[in-house]
Amino acid sequence: MKVHTLSLKNFRNIGEIQLSFNEGVNIIYGENAQGKTNILEALWLFTGMRSFRASKDAEQILFGQSNAKIKTEFVSRGIEQSAEITFSEKKTALLNEIKQSSVNNFAAEYHAVIFSPEHLSLVKGGPKERRQFCDNALCQIKPGFYEYLSKYKKNLVQRNALLKDYKYNTSIEMMLDIFEENLAQLGTKIILQRKRYLNALSEQVKHIYHGISSGKEEIELVYMGSFDAESEEKTKDAFLKALKNSRSEDVNSLTTSVGPHRDDIDIFINGISARKFGSQGQQRSAVLALKLGEANVLKDKTGEQPIALLDDVMSELDEQRQDYILHHIDGWQVFITCCDPHTILRLKEGKTFHIAGGKLSDTTEPKT
Fold it and tell me: What rounded mean pLDDT belongs to the chain?
């Protein structure tokens, strides 16, 4: 897919801006806090996913304004399309000028991968980051996966609420049984889809990491679940049994201690945990392999080449890793934010956009 245009109004620190992009590399540069990342954030939001900046919708509206709007024109599956999101008291979405029930509906048409400085801690951070990485990727490949996650979280909240009362009122055991049955059914679908995705991702990541390390190291991804099971029926039974067995402990802690919301993905380099013992270089290389692998799986599953959004990560990497990224996204449409465009242009020609104070102050067309 390719993005042709992006229009923003009252979004973050940007009053109004219209951008027309090159089909290759687009470099958005300027000093810090001028609005560069806001442009990448807007491009990412059309995937239907939450902001990679973990912010609330209200924070995306320019201070003093009541609403914000972002709009894009793009090509996907060979079809010229448009998408629009309005942020106000209630978020609304249009796809090809047709109102959508949710921005999640964009996921079937618009595909992207995002690299940000936060992703460099994907390996050494907590389990939540790795679960979210896996779940976000699945939501783009399987739009229905978001519904499983949403329903699972609602049942999880309800079970946790009942745990508070169960200690003093065991007559609500039947209600607990119902929510545990729901959790087991929904959680099983989440676990199995994560495992299938991880199998596909592992093949890509192994190949990419082998190249990054010049064949000196091997990487392995392992799903660390609350219980061991493979088939849908056995997984559901094992999950339900684990919930029953942990009920006494959960009543005391007032939280559900088993399930996909507690699972993790461990990353091993040459058989050793990268999170616990990996060097900074190994951890960064693992993240690069994960993100490039994510893009390859997304292309394989959807038939569409995702756009690549690189938010100020090139400065975090040495020249060898910069070159590796740009070599592997050759032929993609790429959006890169940085303070100094010459560092990137040394490696790749592209169209540049200078952003200052939330405004476009200069544009340079690609070299010929």
Answer: 92
The owner of tokens 């060898």 is: 320
What letter would DSSP give residue 64? T
Q: What's the CA gap between 217 and 196, in Å, rounded?
A: 24
Confidence at residue 345, expressed as pLDDT on a 0 to 100 scale: 67
**Entry pTM:** 0.90
Query: Residue 359 and residue 286: Cα distance in Å, rounded?
Result: 36
Query: What pLDDT, on a 0 to 100 scale, did the predictor assign at position 368?
Result: 47
Q: Report d(CA 242, CA 348) in Å as an integer.
A: 53
Domain that holds residue 357: 1-111+304-368
Question: CA 17, CA 6: separation in Å to the nearest integer?
Answer: 8
Indicate whether 145 and 179 sit together in one domain: yes
Cβ(278)–Cβ(271) below 8 Å: no
Compute the distance between CA of residue 10 and CA of residue 300 in angstroms, rounded to an integer. Answer: 36
Do the beta carbons of residue 72 and residue 3 sit within 8 Å? yes
Question: 3-state DSSP call for residue 39?
Answer: helix
Burial class (CB in 10 A: 0-12, 13-18, 19+), 303: exposed
Confidence class of residue 314 from pLDDT cuts 50, 70 and 90? confident
Pick from 52, 81, 78, 82: nearest CA to 69: 82
**Residue for token digits 């405004």?**
359
Which of 253, 279, 303 is the last residue in one of the domains? 303
Distance of CA 42 to the CA centre of its chain: 14
CATH number at residue 103: 3.40.50.300
Residue 308, Cα to own-chain centre: how many angstroms? Answer: 12
Among 166, 187, 167, which residue's Cα sits nearest to residue 177?
A: 166
Q: Which of 171, 185, 172 is nearest to 243 (CA)?
A: 185
Cα torsion 55, 61, 63, 66 to 10°: value is -140
Spatial separation of the C-alpha atoms in residues 137 and 297, rounded to whole Å: 9
- SS3 assignment, position 164: helix
